[in-house]
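Record 1 of the preview.
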Amino acid sequence: MTSPIFVALDTPDLERAKALATKVRHHVGGIKLGLEFFAANGRSGVKEMAHLGLPIFLDLKLHDIPNTVAKAIQALRDLEPAVLTIHAAGSRAMMEDAKAAAPAGTKVVAVTVLTSLDGDDLQSIGLAADPHAQVERLTALARDAGLDGVVCSGAEVKAAKKLWPGGYFVVPGVRPSNGNAGDQKRVVTPRQALDHGASILVVGRPITGAEDPDQAARAIAATL
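->
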């Protein structure tokens, strides 16, 4: 069985990203490349990482008018990412256009509420101060827009899966029971996230910041 762990290579340094991915490649199911990596290395950097043979989760969290997002995704088509993120808050129309523009093999998933936000943060931008309700609302919208799934915290994935039994659920911000939460506010352990319905788990610093990243990836995989 392929590991559900995607390691987050949040670094602008292409050589460091390649070295980390090479170290952990036998104990993870894929690699996540986000804005930090993409801003520094662009499409060519993604292509270079693809040579390692691991599925690529391109975490760009696109959020703009529907036409712009669709055209951006068309420009990424030849990279054929396994997973691509957009923001659910961009509207149903934006999500529909994003899915229509994506390659057939790419799972387009919508970010609901970032794991760095809590109720106070939502209230400060004019939303109801309940992350759980907001995740449910946006999960239903993503489902109705024809996307493949959503990104949500482990605290909400159980409710999201209940709303969308056939959905694909990406859970970031997971931390081993002995791990440091860092800047994440709504975290669970990898085992809890899987038990609650996660399809894949995004793990960054607990692996990439470890003295022995391969051993750290193996230790997390063992808990699953």
